[in-house]
Amino acid sequence: MGLLRFAVKTFRLSLMRVGAGWMFALLTFNFNRVSISDLGAMAVIVTTLIGLHHFISFFQVYWGRFTDRYPIFGLRRTPYVILSNVGAALIFLALPSIAVGLGERSIIATIEAFALIFLFGVLMAMNGSSSNALIAEVTTPKERGAVVAFIWATVIISGIVSAGISRVIMPVYSPEAMQQLYNLTPIIVTVTVLLGVIGLEKPISKEEHRKLLEQAPEKGEAGPLETWRVATGLMKRNPQVRGFFAFVLLAILGIFLQDAILEPFGAEVFGMPQKDTAAFQQAWGAGALLGMLGIGILSSIFPIQKKTIATLGGLGVAGGLAMLMISALTLHREIISPALLIMGLGIGLFNVGALAMMMEMTVEGQTGLYMGMWGMAQGLGNGFANVISGLGHTVMIEGGLVTPSVGYGLVFGLEALLMVLAIGILRGISVQEFKGLTRQEITTALAMDAAS
């Protein structure tokens, strides 16, 4: 009976993340490819646009603290998860026409695009902190390895499914086909999030709510900027917090520099159509699934350290990226599929190990705050990855400094180097030393902020 309850809980937590997987996949394998390669939009504008919501990731810390203290109908996570998912999904209805405007280099369309993606970023910051906090609160440390593996497997499956559906609905680009594809987003997101979270969270009592409110700063509720100061104060005083933040930031940079330009790489270096570059998502996604499911099974049998899992995953990602660099520089298309498979295997292992470590690197009563901090590191890494990759494309390739094959090869090589550096930082991180951090240090940070 206990195993059945665990399976149902894990499945529902996974459903909660399907919508996010679908939305991020559409942005990073379809919207980018169509805007840059099919419509001729400036690459740095498109990739910065895709990365914009990540730069708003400091909101994750704010939403983490906000939802810690302000439940709705006694629920601190569920209402925020639902609201953020549905709101973000509705934005996708406007993106096909935005892509056309970007291709026409329209200033109005560019402003509209940045405004919509800014809103998307605020909503996904709420979603990230709330959903990760919910996962941390309804699972035990022993369960988390398997739960995280299954959740991320589901997220990647949703990305693979979205790529498959896009290949059917839009084998080649047309405005009508793109609109039809994006119109599915609110339906898929709303249905899956409601099935996933309704009834999963236990409401808190009025007495528990009163105690939460008593933890608020004396000078009123801190806003996003004040919360950012609290987070940076904790990083200054605790080297484990600082080191783990740097690890997450660099590792995400190492993984996702290719994310916004992978499909344009296939189009510009090898002349591949949309239906073929959409298969890139399926190739690395399949590898990630194998990695996560495999390590999920192994970690349930053998006591494998989360740091070891993340390390092996990071090295696998670096190896796959090195192969992509070779493919670009030597114009060997046949290397792409095995490279993406190896990179995916590494991403699968890394996701399980790193996310499980994030959930351990928290302090009781402040889960939302710390999950927000780690989410902020992820967001900044993703944001910088998009901007740097797009800037590199515009300066090196569109500017005519190097050929597309050399430009993409340089980006893939830089990614591999960053991932190796991140793994070096990870080796010095200790969850046990981090646990020496007490609630008093958080109170001190709040007091220092109030006095400033």
TrEMBL record:
Chief location: membrane
- Gene Ontology terms: cellular component: membrane
Say which domain of life the source belongs to. Bacteria
Swiss-Prot/TrEMBL keywords: Membrane, Transmembrane, Transmembrane helix
**Which InterPro entries does its entry note?**
MFS_trans_sf, PucC, PucC-rel
Q: Looking at the keywords, is Nucleotide-binding present?
A: no
Q: Where in the cell is it found?
A: Membrane
- Gene3D superfamilies, A to Z: MFS general substrate transporter like domains
Q: Which PANTHER family match?
A: 44.5 KD BACTERIOCHLOROPHYLL SYNTHASE SUBUNIT (PTHR23538)
Q: Any idea what this protein is called?
A: PUCC protein
